[in-house]
Amino acid sequence: HIATSLPLPSERDHLRPRIDLIVFVIDIKSKCSLKNVEASLAYVDASFFLGKVCFLVTGVGRVNCCSIEPNAISKLGEAYCSPVLFCELELEGVRVATAQRLLRMLQICAGLVPGFSALSFSLLMRNSADD
């Protein structure tokens, strides 16, 4: 399911499926995009930041069009202990690889991969980013 911001409308709570992963999409050429994500973060339960949230930054292939410093987004990921994925969705190969990576993250967060939990996956992502 896709939402443009949080909180989600409460009138459909009884129909909403379980939420296993929240992907915040940030367009690197839009400061409004970052502000919307920052405002939405207040509506996410703290327990979700233990492996069930990630930030997807799009438009990184056009460095000259950036309105947001990549470092600011990396700091956001650090502050919320959540992975940050940078990609260029206009390139088909990158788009497919990113979709596959997000799908694998979702499978882990939903508990569909034996031996991995969302928390252990999150720690693995953080450790590999620190190297």
From TrEMBL:
Gene3D superfamilies: P-loop containing nucleotide triphosphate hydrolases (3.40.50.300). It is found in: Chromosome, Centromere; Nucleus. Keywords: Centromere, Chromosome, Nucleus. Its main location: nucleus. InterPro entries: Centromere_Cenp-M (IPR020987), P-loop_NTPase (IPR027417). The keyword Phosphoprotein does not apply. One of its GO terms (cellular component) is nucleus. The keyword Nucleus applies. It holds the Pfam family CENP-M. This is Centromere protein M. It comes from Pachyramphus minor. The gene is Cenpm.
